[in-house]
């Protein structure tokens, strides 16, 4: 009898079903912007900056390009630091640190 040739069976390749991990900056940028916007509205300051944040947030949600949003967040950081220097109640160091971390 002739030997039957053994077929090499390769192990099936497992496809990853996990979603690709997004960076923390992209995950938190929307929430951070909403937090900044809420803070500015509660303090009743910088109405033009509020409008710019809303517009840039909508634009970011549409095209996922954060360049304009990051620029406006930088302006908000300056304003919120000035408010913290005035000892305005509600402007926390935690918020400012999270903004600086997102901009870095």
Determine the number of helices (DSSP H or I, runs of at least 4 residues): 4
Mean pLDDT score: 83
The gross shape turns out to be: elongated
Low-pLDDT runs = 19-23
Strand content: under 5%
Task: Give the C-alpha Rg.
Answer: 24 Å
The helix content is: 55-70%
**SSE order:** HHHH
Helix/strand/pairing category: mainly alpha
Main beta sheet: none
- Strand tally is 0
Notes on the structure:
- With 104 residues, the protein is an all-alpha fold.
- The chain contains four helices and no strands.
- The protein has helices spanning 24-43, 47-63, 67-85, 93-103.
- Helix 1 (24-43) packs antiparallel against helix 2, helix 2 packs antiparallel against helix 3 and helix 3 (67-85) packs antiparallel against helix 4.
- It is elongated.
- The N and C termini lie far apart (73 Å).
Could you give a quick summary of the protein structure above?
The protein is mainly alpha-helical and 104 residues long. The protein contains four helices and no strands.
Name some characteristics of this structure:
elongated, 104 residues, 4 helices, mainly alpha
SSE order and pairing:
Elements: H1 24-43, H2 47-63, H3 67-85, H4 93-103
Helix pairs in contact: 1-2, 1-4, 2-3, 3-4
